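Pilot study result, target chain (355 residues):
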Amino acid sequence: MRGDDQQQNNVFSYVSLEDRVPSDHPLRPIRDSVDRVLKAMSREFDKLYAEGGRASIAPERLLRALLLQVFYSIRSERMLMEQLEYNLLFRWFVGLEMDEPVWNHSTFSKNRDRLLNQDIARSFFARVREQARPYMSDEHFTVDGTMIEAWASQKSFQKKDGDDAGSSGNFHGHKRTNDTHASKTDPDAKLYRKGHGQEARLSYLGHVLTENRNGLIADAMVTAADGRAEREAALLMVHDRWKRHEPIRTVAADKAYDTREFVSLLREMQVRPHVAQNLNRPGGSAVDARTTRHVGYEISQKRRPRIERAFGWMKSVGGIRKVKLRGLRKVGWLFVMTAAAFNLWRIPKLIAAER
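Predicted structure:
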């Protein structure tokens, strides 16, 4: 018998959001992990708000909404608010009731910028890392950097002295460098090219330290884009771990890290430099047979490409290929939060693989 196409809307719903989300939905274990992290950060959130005044958006909801934006590649806060208006799965993950009003997109952005900073992002990332620790190597790591395109056009890259001659859009034939020019839109962004023959773009550099067992991210940071930033950031992340007395025996890296200064500094921290040899560099490779003769060196080189999986996910899904925030501080916390989201996405898969 054919059913009737009734258009009358029901006034009440007797099915809760919790019952509408399937028990095996991929977001369920992620939501449980996030809730444990946010509960542990409650005192940190208390310090960011005054005791009186009008209640703002709950920081827990802000962070859950931000994670949704990363997981589902939502390109703007306006579109995120639109999804929260009618997407019951998103409402359940953030913690909104079915009839609860959604925030205005500008209100959400202002509250997010007020709440999120490097300290909060780092604390969130560190607590997620603790949950991932059973699936991480505590001795063998890989480091690398990637270019993050800034939210600024080439036309905004103008002379610092205010002489805008030749900056009306046709800058061909004019020499432009970071010493003499700066972006009017995002002054922290630098003109940078990742490799020879590639176009120079206004960019930042994102750096991650991954462990070699499952490719989980152990540390992440953003720096201004220049030729030494990758090696300096790598040393900072390794030194930070060494300073906390956390074990680290080897660090793998590509040929760009094959310099005598970088290799010697790693050895001073009792870390073996499993760096890919650049035999074409002047003076030859800084990595000699003391390192390459060990079987561990070959294993590190085979595991090293796993770091590209993290970069690929963060760029294609997480949206950091070209960030829509301006300033080193904001790009930095977004990159760290995206790294935490990558670990949250990987942990349930690793747990399922062990069963």
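One observation from the pilot: Residues 17-115 form one domain. A full batch analysis is planned for the follow-on phase.
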